[in-house]
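Much of our argument rests on the idea that a fold can be written as discrete symbols. Part of our work consisted of pairing the sequence of a single chain with a tokenised description of its backbone. The amino acid sequence and the backbone structure tokens for this protein are reproduced below.
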Amino acid sequence: MQVEVRKGERNSELKASLRAKRKIYLDLATQHIRLPRNTRPAIRKILTQIIWQNFSKNLKITGFKNISKSQNKTAVTYTYSYEKIDLPTKNISQILEEIRRGLREKTIRITPLQAVELNLSFPKNISRDYALNVWKKEYQGFLKFAISQNLISNTAFIRQKPISLNASQLPVKLSDLLTLNDAMPLNMVLCEALTEQLAKQDYQMILKKIIKFCLSAPSFYASDSKVKDLALKFNIIKPNILLKNKRLSEKLYREKKKFRQKYFDINEFNSLSYILNSNGTLPVVFRRGSCVKKNIGIAGLLRRFERSHSYLILLQASDWFEKHNFRTMHLIVKRQLFKSGLKNSTVNRCDRNSNNKIRTNRIPKVKDL
């Protein structure tokens, strides 16, 4: 076993010895498992690290000694020998069962990324609840919704304007990017940086979940985001749907300009702006709330919605847009209502003189937009 350290480095012999032992344990962990040939390198690496950190801890290296030392202009190389250790091999099912048991009993050392990537890769072996328990110990904000694909129930964040960030301001470390995304969901700059790092480290299953989440970011389809390339690569979105959403963003831009000339700048209402700029795809669920007076204007409706996030008020706003010939806004808002869980049978009881049932043929599809 050979290990290199920089020439002149303090405690070089001790550091070389520790690095050599770490390499030996990793080699033993690799020998300990028998994986199918088509196992992704990232999964192989995760399982090897978990075995090394947990199940190989009782192994003892005997006969470990330094047998030679050589150096060049920049580095010192130490060579070590040790007595061979034969370990029984285990297949992937046996290893996953040990990990599952460790998660259930909370006795295993495992990172949130490792736990979730294993759950998404082997959902029958590793429980999502166990994996999310590990995840939520470190990341308690919005990313848990991206991982679980559940709708966000705390919608307060859309009352604030999206925070403007510059890529040069962002950290490089993946754990720091996760922390930022956890606090500031659906930020395009953060989405770019996070998906890039997840792709580099081959957390493929988590990456796909984050890409789906980022597709709902405001102005995503109007941007030149690299996330689009990843979404196409993993077949998360079809090219024709991507094109139609881009055209929808262009229609929205023109319609917002027309609305501003006739009434006011609709971007003054942050919550509705989030909905419109995401093309009606925000992964949120609104409360039912209550209706407002029939004759209230659009500004009054939007102010009430800004405070209450009531889907009944949003439905009233959608009907107002339809009545006043702002078809793109009407369809985007209606799309958001169904994304947020509004049922086909819901009745707009805000207008007692009509039986305004939302029928299946009124649910906007991308082709309608």
